[in-house]
Fold this sequence. Notes:
Elements: H1 3-22, H2 27-65
Helix pairs in contact: 1-2
Amino acid sequence: MQLPYFLxxxxxxxxxTVVLVVVDVPLLLALLIGFAAAGLATWPIGRMQRxxxxxxxxxxxxxxxxxxxxxxx
Length: 73
């Protein structure tokens, strides 16, 4: 699920952009800096989520390929 990653990136973008605008950086420049910083700051989170998703898919396909268990006594 990508929602936490999206929300983290959005939060970094909004907070940084607001701070830059408050210190009199032009809005367009503040947005550009915010996008770049949000991408760099949240890249490790996205990478961890992609790895977890890949592991989950691998485990799911391995479980689907396994023979069914015999019924208990």
